[in-house]
Amino acid sequence: MDVKKIIEEIKKIDKEYHYFNVISEELALGQAKELKVEPKGRLNGMVVSVKDCICVEGVESRAGSKILSGYKPVFDATVIEKIKKEGAVIAGKTSQDEFGFGGFSVNMGLGFQIPLNPFDKERACGGSSGGSAGISQKASFPHVSLAESTGGSIVNPASFCGVVGLCPTYGRVSRYGLIDYANSLDKIGPMGKNVKDVALMLEVIAGFDKNESTTINAPVDRYTDFVGKEVKGMKIGVIKEAFEGIDKEVKEKVKDGISVLEKNGAKTEEISLPLTNKYGIACYYLIAMSESSTNLAKYCGMRYGAHEKLDGNFNEYFSKVRSANFGEEAKRRIILGTFARMAGYRDAYYIKAMQVRTKIIEEYKKAFKKFDALVSPTMPIVAPKFSEIEKLTPLQNYMMDILTVGPNLAGLPHITVPVKKDKMPIGLMLIGDHLEEKKIIQIGSVLE
Amino acid sequence: MKVDKELIEKTASLARLKLTDKEINKFLPQLKEILEYFSELDKIDAKDVKPSFQPVELKNFTREDKPEECLAQDKALENSEHKKDGYFKGPRAV
């Protein structure tokens, strides 16, 4: 594998499509040189891209925000440490909505460029891991990207760009070194050209981490063993509400995908998730915004990232830095999240959302007593045009996440596999019970 | 609840944000629409339901109370422009 050539290709693609915030050429070439002398591990020589919100030592990591300008982490995130040990070569940091605040990669931080859909430059990549999905589609070389999901940010762009994306169970993959969005929702997961690559990457990054108190201390399955394994007799629940009011072609192609599963011997049956469908969005956004407004409190122009001249008192200085460096959607979410946690409103909004979440988790848990996996389209539409997105209000924007917020709220693993691969691609989503990544990998691989 | 300019300004100031009039005018109808939608949750009876602060049950775990190697001071300060004598330097407190 000629890493130098690959970096040249990445630069060329990036110039046209804006998939990278940083291309880490020096790091990649150094790693390639070392691997030539001493090959290592399960990812030996594999060129990997990393969503901007995951810390890579010495490489500017901004989570797509101007407020983190110049921030070069002095340590690697646990996932980065793990992939480096297995011989991965890190190509750079992929573009995203600022801090993950979006579903189309158009809510960019100040000064960042919007990534363009690999099939049609007038359309969005999806988000928030837009750059990861775009490069996974465009790369002519073997490639896996490390992405991150809070409310659908892995499967959404993967579906819009025609690649495979897997969001693991909450706590399955360490988030040590992740620039956080919402602590009770964030998950790091892989994106790639096929289920096998994604399964392999998950195998590498999953597991307990003493540096991350929310990781689950359970053995990691050999996910790659489940790729291509027969699905005869497996029970799959078809989510009824997910097929209502969606794009006609999306519905058809996903139904075709379900027929493929049936032909392979899987048993399907309709299942209704009324609570998740009706209240998922409100519940998700309340929690996500409350947590993100807390997380974003740490950005104040002192210890890292954007700095200004030190003048005025604490409040004046912090307000100055924050007002000048956060983008519009970040400000909107900070205000909404702060409001939802304010005295007098906290019980009605924040606590209530956490209670509704319990009910949503129960709804899923009940379904998994009967089914091995649940199936739905990943997104209700194909990748929209930028001109269409511009017309949406923020709330209409949020509504696009209707199918993905459920599994994210409940911390359930989910995978998207393309059921239409050419212009414009469509993804089918499989949701598994907690720690049952292997089952959705198994079922998903049948669709390839 | 009345969502108006005053409420937005108050919330913004709690979050250490100073919004321009242009931003406030843009946000006002958007936030109204969103908060109204959030109120949908009022329709669910969840009075005695335990809130899920995490989606999966987690147990606290602790480590031995022994000093371990941690980030060196110069490393911790590496990303800051505002430092003096091995400390972060902040704006004045009052």
CATH topology of chain A: Amidase signature (AS) enzymes
Low-pLDDT segments, ≥5 res of chain A? none
Number of strands of chain B: 2
Strand composition percent of chain B: under 5%
**CATH architecture assignment of chain A:** Alpha-Beta Complex
SS element count, helices of chain A: 15
Strand order of the largest sheet of chain B: 1-2
Q: Structural class of chain A, please? A: alpha/beta
Distance between the termini of chain A: 26 Å
Provide the residue-averaged pLDDT of chain B.
Answer: 93
Task: Tell me what portion of residues of chain A adopts beta-strand conformation.
Answer: 15-25%
Provide the helix percentage of chain B.
25-40%
Provide the gyration radius of chain A in Å.
Answer: 21 Å
Distance between the termini of chain B: 34 Å
Characterize the main sheet of chain A.
11 strands, mixed
From the structure above, extract its key features.
heterodimer, A: about 450 residues, alpha/beta, Amidase signature (AS) enzymes, eleven-stranded mixed β-sheet, two-stranded antiparallel sheet, B: about 90 residues, mainly alpha, two-stranded antiparallel ribbon, 3 helices, about 35% helix, about 5% strand
Summarize the structure.
Chain A has a single domain, classed as Amidase signature (AS) enzymes (Alpha-Beta Complex), CATH 3.90.1300.10.
Fold blueprint:
The complex is a heterodimer of chains A (448) and B (94).
Chain A: H1 3-17, E1 20-23, H2 25-37, E2 47-51, H3 78-85, E3 89-94, E4 116-117, E5 120-124, H4 130-138, E6 143-149, H5 155-161, E7 164-167, E8 187-192, H6 195-205, E9 235-239, H7 248-263, E10 267-271, H8 274-295, H9 314-325, H10 328-340, H11 347-368, E11 373-377, H12 386-389, H13 394-399, H14 405-409, E12 414-420, E13 426-432, H15 437-446
Parallel strand pairs in A: 2-3, 2-6, 9-10, 9-11
Antiparallel strand pairs in A: 1-3, 4-5, 6-8, 7-8, 7-12, 11-13, 12-13
Chain B: H1 5-14, H2 21-38, H3 73-77, E1 83-84, E2 87-88
Antiparallel strand pairs in B: 1-2
